[in-house]
Design brief:
Blueprint lengths: L1 H39 L7 H22 L8 H5 L2 H32 L13 H4 L1 H18 L14
Helix pairs in contact: 1-2, 1-6, 2-6, 4-6
Amino acid sequence: MAGAFKQFCELLTLAVGILLGVLTAAIVVIALTAVWWRYAANDPISWTEQVSRILFVWMTFLGAALLYRQRMHIAIDMFVNLLPGPLQKFLYWAVEFAVLVFVLVFFTFGLKLSLDTWDNTYGALDITPATFYLAAPVSSALIVIYFLERLIDPELRRPAPTVLMD
């Protein structure tokens, strides 16, 4: 079971990584198009700023989930590394469960906000603001999946190694 779940998480991470690349490329193309239409054609496009903002919000939330899986979120671990091994492990799991509680609350309220605003419209595109808000529950669901992967796979239970810059 652990192997199949790890494979699922690998595929999910690959898919989200590809999606992040597509979102980044789309933002670049949209920005270049907006600049060209505004200054070269002298006919600005009204929707470029809103679409770029939506894509950026999705990039931020999906990127946060991938960073969680790769244990690359910012952390101050200088004092934790000074603690004895068992205390480090306890503190690691205490932080992980605190993150889980936060993510579950974030999922609940993000989903409620998305559903509550589904029928509203926003801006020049006449789209729902839920396009912004759905990024929170989707990202939260990914983080919960990656948390479960850490519970199942013993290799992922170790804190991330400290990386020193040259």
